[in-house]
Structures are given as structure tokens and as C-alpha cells.
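Both lines are quoted verbatim for reference:

——
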Amino acid sequence: MSTAQFLAIPSYFPPGALWRRMEKGFPLVRVAVINPDNGPGRTVDIDYLAQVRQSQKAGLLVVGYVSMQYGSRDAAVVASEIDKYHAWYGVDGIFFDEVSSNASYQAYYAAFNMAVKKRDPAALTILNPGTVPDECYMSISDIMVTFEGPLGTYLSDYEPAAWLRRYPPERFWHLIYAAPTSLMASRAIALSKQRGAGWIFVTPVGLPNPWQRLPSNSYWANELALVQQAGE
């Protein structure tokens, strides 16, 4: 039996039309990431606040972006950013970016997972090492980004670990950029399905910021259709 697959999007673009396009993609689009200023910013942004409320009303889970700088950030600063996202925007969880894959940092990240869950046991903790990490991280996350990179790397250099198969697809998210055509996106989505990713996003946009916008309307419509087919 085929397993459902959904879109989760690192939506690092301002409130407005692109967010409305994501909302129209629900229920295939399930998770979006709010990132006002490489984090929550210094003060609440009323436009982002309105957008979060609207997107949640449309059915999306909206999580707040927090950079971890691979374990080098001061724990008090990270905790403060988690608090701001919840207090200012009422987010549904936290997306921790730039996460180390090394087991030695497990306790460091575990404390932040606990901080998220203490506020709301149902809130999502998403960790993004961008590669397959040590398995110990599965106990302190709901969703793990086990790949973030260009399509070429995904096709040729992705190396799954045997332990990944012990977990259901909804625990894993693949982020693939620089896939310039819908045909290439189709190949990437098919591969992500085979590789056990329950969450996916593919874009033709490349570096320096692949997540600055959504794909064109036609590419986007095709991606929605492909993800829907993956779950049928």
C-alpha cells in the first residue's frame, strides 16, 4: 500500500501572495516555516502575525525558524527565540536549522526539544542537519531533515543509513533545490518516496537562497499533482 506524502516548505518569504498560494495547496501542503529576520526578530511583526493566524486558519502548521549554527549558539539566546515565537506568533512548533549531525550534541538539542514540548506537548520539533544524523536525534525530534541540497547531489550522492527504515516516513523531510524542470522534480519526488521521506519540497531555485520563493505556477501545480499521486 502506498504511503501518503505531504509538502513541508521552508517559506522564507514575506507575508502575502506566496503564502496564499501555499494555503490553497492544503491539505497537500501541511507545514510552513515563518522566518521574519533570521529568527523572530527584535519585536513582533504585525504582518507576520496576521499571516500566521491566516495560514493556521487555512489548516497549515506554522513553525518558527531558529538557527543553531551547528551547536555554537548560546543556549539562553536560543531559548529566548523559542519563547518569542510562541509569545508573539503562537506558532505550532520550531524548525531548528543548521543542526549538527554529531551525537555529541544530543544533550544540547534535547534541552530545546524539551522547551518546545513543555509549552505544548503537541508542538512540532523539527531538526535540520541537512544530512542523515546519528540515530540518537530521533528521540528528540518529530521530523528530521535528512537531506537538503541540489538535485545533482540527491541523485548521485545521497547515502541512507540502515536505521532509517525503522521509522515511518512522516519522521523524515527531504529538501531538494536546483531542479530546473518539472520532469526533474518528478524524478526527485519519486526518489524521495522510495527513500522513505514523508515530507518533501522541490524547487527550481538554486543558491544562494533556494527558499526565497515558490516555483512558478505551472511547476508548483505539477509538484502538487506529483505529491498527490505519491499518496494514492
Summary: The chain is about 35% helix and 20% strand. The CA atoms of residues 138 and 144 lie 7 Å apart.
